[in-house]
Write a structure and sequence with these properties.
Strands 5-6-11-8 form a four-stranded mixed sheet. The protein is built from 19 helices and 15 strands. It is globular and about 70 Å long. By secondary structure, it is an alpha+beta fold. The protein folds into two domains: about 110 residues, no CATH class; about 400 residues, Cytochrome P450 (Cytochrome p450), CATH 1.10.630. The relative contact order is 0.14. It binds protoporphyrin IX containing FE. The site of protoporphyrin IX containing FE (HEM) has 25 residues, from helix 12, helix 13 and helix 19. Pfam families: p450. This is steroid 11beta-monooxygenase. It comes from Micropogonias undulatus. It is found in: Mitochondrion membrane.
């Protein structure tokens, strides 16, 4: 038999350098890990080889793919176990535990999905080195029954190589390049200031304490979701949609719910084969496709409006001559330049809208919580922000440049709570990782949650320390992968980073933050990592 089962309980310690092991909080412990027998299990303990301590085989050869430790060869049995024990919601913790047991590389089979999971100190540069790396997006499968969804898949997710790259470079000009950031940053700043204005009014009206110094304890998450949608719409469509008004539109709230449910219904779709899904998972698939339907209609309506605006402004320009060059948002820019087809514009805009709300709202929840439970860190960041703001003379870009601790705060939040917990690649050629041979086409995923919390990668990883990135130089190598890497990295990265920093900047200038309990937040994974219960934050006016 090539493999054997061992009992792993929470008290087992992996030998070798990986001393500390996190116990699973709130998760059913994994009862059995199955590993290849090649010298990996000694007297029921996990040996040095399986912990990945020994990087080369005894004879110095590159080791075979099937020598990589794994968690059970039968993907279907694993899937059933995961399902029964509701482990999907704790997959991030499960990965952390498995790395602690098996070392920095292991294979995982779950239903139809097989992957090689890696984390540092594994050398992962090889995985990201080649431009030709071929990622396949997992949602929005080509077998989708929904027409728009199929269109979207073809337009963005299934394209690869030069064709994909040419489109992406055009999109990058509008969302990633510094000239684009300069154009959209004031729009994000507008929304962040309005958010704080709204919050100040609310604290004054509903809060406790003497006038001018009132404080209010609340769950800020619904407001953060509205903030993220308002900010996305302003940058992408060049439109404010009034979500901070006393009666925000129901249509926008429906969009927020649709994205939330689309994300929540995605994970099962990743592990079941299409045929099975169409039978036993039909309601799930129908719901998933329906949510995409809402997302598409929301985008469609705005894209139509964008076209009307563009044609009327072009009409006006030709009547009056060159009119003012008002920034019309990413959509307006793409339409005006006309280099992407209408289908591609729609697909990309919808992708930006779907990817841009929860991904920023949730890290902001964690950020307010961590700043609240670390008052000294909060004060240090605030001092820097105040000084920078005073120097910047109202220019938001200068203000951010002068406050690197804000950027450090975002990095620190995404280290501890990576909203996307893995970054996947399918190498297009054979590669070697941790001295194991990885055939082309294998799904390899860098697992960010265990990476961010590893004592081998970060000094005192449990400590929230925004200064570690710039001041202590911990930002080198592949330690910061929250937005992915290379040509396929997150296309909304610059929007997200600036949006979150600006909001935190204005909040820190206006409020002192605190939390009633400094206990760790319990987290769960839907498609994104989020708090099990949103934290309550006390905002005290400064
Ligand atoms: C903290 C916020 C965010 C994080 C941590 C994040 C993370 C990621 C990651 C890890 C990827 C995959 C990258 C790779 O494979 O190398 C990704 C892709 C993507 N993200 Fe984000 N994201 C965030 C915010 C946003 C925002 C605000 C938008 C839209 C405005 C967005 C839109 C997208 C899109 C469209 C893709 C697919 C890109 C492609 O495959 O070409 N994301 N994101």
């Amino acid at each position: 038999m090539r493999s054997m089962y061992i009992q792993v309980t929470m008290c087992i310690r992996a030998q070798g350098t990986r001393g500390s092991r996190n116990l699973l909080c709130g998760v059913a412990p994994q009862r059995a890990l199955c590993m290849t027998a090649a010298g990996t299990v000694v007297d029921g303990k996990i040996g040095a080889e399986s912990t990945g301590v020994r990087k080369r085989g005894v004879d110095g050869r590159v080791r075979r793919f099937d020598e990589i430790p794994h968690t059970g060869r039968n993907g279907w049995i694993n899937l059933v176990k995961f399902w029964r024990e509701d482990r999907f919601r704790q997959l991030h913790k499960h990965m952390e535990m498995t790395f602690n047991a098996l070392g920095p590389i292991y294979r995982q089979h779950l239903g139809t999905q097989s992957s090689v999971n890696i984390m540092m100190p594994c050398d992962i540069s090889e995985l990201f080195r080649s431009e030709g790396l071929h990622p396949r997006r997992m949602t929005l499968q080509p077998w989708a029954t929904h027409r728009e969804t199929r269109q979207h898949s073809k337009g963005v997710f299934l394209k690869n190589g030069d064709e994909w790259r040419a489109d992406r470079l055009l999109l990058n000009k509008e969302v990633m390049m510094s000239s684009a950031v300069k154009r959209f940053l004031p729009l994000l700043d507008d929304v962040a200031r309005d958010f704080c204005r709204m919050l100040r009014v609310r604290v004054e009206r509903e809060g406790r304490g003497e006038e001018g110094k009132r404080s209010l304890t609340m769950d800020p998450s619904p407001d953060l979701f509205r903030f993220a949608l308002e900010a996305s719409c302003h940058v992408i469509y060049g439109e404010r949609i009034g979500l901070f008004s006393s009666s925000p539109s129901l249509e926008s709230q429906k969009f927020i719910w649709a994205v939330e449910r689309m994300l929540a219904t995605t994970p099962p779709l990743l592990y079941l084969p299409p045929r099975l899904l169409l039978h036993i998972g039909a309601p799930l698939w129908t719901q998933h496709a329906t949510e995409w339907g809402h997302i598409f209609s929301h985008a469609e309506a705005r894209i139509q409006r964008g076209y009307q605006r563009l044609s009327s402004s072009q009409g006006r320009k030709s009547e009056v001559g060159a009119a003012g060059d008002q920034y019309t948002g990413v959509l307006g820019q793409l339409m005006e330049k006309g280099q992407l087809s209408l289908d591609l514009i729609k697909a990309n805009i919808t992708g930006l809208m779907a990817g841009g709300v929860d991904t920023t709202a949730v890290p902001l929840e964690f950020a307010l919580f961590e700043l609240g439970r670390n008052p000294e860190v909060q004060e240090r960041v605030r001092q820097q922000v105040r000084a920078s703001w005073a120097q910047a003379g109202g220019d938001p870009q200068k203000a951010l440049q002068g406050a690197p601790l804000l950027k450090g705060t975002i990095k620190e939040i995404l280290r501890l709570y990576p909203v996307g917990t893995t970054v996947q690649r399918y190498p297009i050629k054979d590669i070697v990782l941790q001295n194991y041979h990885i055939p082309a086409g294998t799904m390899v995923q860098a697992c960010l949650y265990p990476l961010g919390r590893s004592v081998e990668v970060f000094e005192e990883p449990q400590r929230f320390d925004p200064g570690r990135w710039a001041e202590k130089g911990e930002g080198t190598g592949f330690r910061y992968l929250a937005f992915g890497f290379g040509a396929r990295q997150c296309v909304g990265r610059r929007i997200a980073e600036n949006e979150m920093q600006l909001l935190l900047m204005h909040i820190l200038l206006s409020f002192h933050l605190s939390v009633s309990s400094s206990e760790d937040i319990k987290t769960m994974l839907t498609l994104i990592l989020q708090p099990e219960t949103p934290p309550r934050i006390t905002f005290r006016k400064l």
